[in-house]
């Protein structure tokens, strides 16, 4: 089972960026935590059902549209933090809606309790679930949800 962990604009700055909101973990450290979590999930899974994670980040809307479009051929599911694009990118919403690959939306912060412009997610209703407000745990819960979803649809 191949999963893509995709991050949008400014998430390459994790660690230095607004640490009071996003914490002090760098993107590299966050990705390492996700990889370790997936290794734990793989203990006890049959070899042919092992989960493999791939990591990608871009600051560019068009690159992210291309990534989502080509992901449908390479991955069974996507965990995606669309960052600022969450709140305004119809192009990224349409990309998610246009591919059959299930996408789980994640946010480190709780977008529902921050500034009003962050309350709207254009991605929410084209994703299979949304996890927010729990820092790195939002990503781990998103991975768990996606793996359970893919396991249940494979049965
Ligand atoms: C974010 C929340 C967005 O509103 C913001 O623009 C981000 C990060 C989060 O992970 O909490 O860049 O997606």
Features:
alpha/beta, globular, 155 residues, five-stranded parallel sheet, Rossmann fold, binds 1,3,4-trihydroxy-5-OXO-cyclohexanecarboxylic acid, 40% helix, 5 helices
Offer a quick outline of the entry.
The protein has helices at residues 19-22, 27-42, 61-74, 90-98, 136-154, and strands spanning 2-7, 52-57, 77-81, 103-107, 129-132. The protein is an alpha/beta fold and 155 residues long.
Write the layout of secondary structure elements.
Blueprint: E1 2-7, H1 19-22, H2 27-42, E2 52-57, H3 61-74, E3 77-81, H4 90-98, E4 103-107, E5 129-132, H5 136-154
Parallel strand pairs: 1-2, 1-3, 3-4, 4-5
Bound molecules: 1,3,4-trihydroxy-5-OXO-cyclohexanecarboxylic acid.
Molecular structure report:
The protein is an alpha/beta fold and 155 residues long. It has helices spanning 19-22, 27-42, 61-74, 90-98, 136-154; strands at residues 2-7, 52-57, 77-81, 103-107, 129-132. The chain has a 5-stranded parallel sheet, with helices on both faces. Strand 3 (77-81), helix 4 (90-98) and strand 4 (103-107) form a beta-alpha-beta unit. Helix 2 (27-42) runs parallel beside helix 5 (136-154) and helix 3 (61-74) packs parallel to helix 4. The mean pLDDT is 97. The structure holds 1,3,4-trihydroxy-5-OXO-cyclohexanecarboxylic acid. 1,3,4-trihydroxy-5-OXO-cyclohexanecarboxylic acid is lined by residues 10, 81, 83-84, 86, 107-109, 111, 118.
């Amino acid at each position: 089972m191949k999963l893509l962990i995709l991050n949008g604009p400014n998430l390459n700055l994790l660690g230095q960026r607004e640490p009071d909101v996003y914490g002090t973990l760098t993107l590299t450290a966050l990705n390492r935590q996700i990889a370790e979590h997936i290794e734990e999930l793989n203990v006890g899974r049959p070899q042919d059902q092992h989960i493999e994670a791939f990591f990608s980040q871009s600051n560019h809307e068009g690159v992210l549209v291309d990534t989502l479009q080509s992901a449908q051929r390479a991955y069974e599911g996507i965990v995606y933090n669309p960052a600022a694009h969450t709140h305004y990118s119809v192009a990224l919403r349409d990309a998610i809606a246009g591919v059959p690959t299930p996408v789980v939306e994640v946010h480190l912060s709780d977008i529902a309790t921050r500034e009003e412009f962050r309350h709207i997610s254009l991605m929410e209703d084209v994703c299979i679930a949304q996890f927010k407000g729990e820092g790195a745990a939002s990503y781990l819960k998103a991975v768990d949800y996606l793996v359970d979803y893919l396991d249940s649809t494979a049965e």
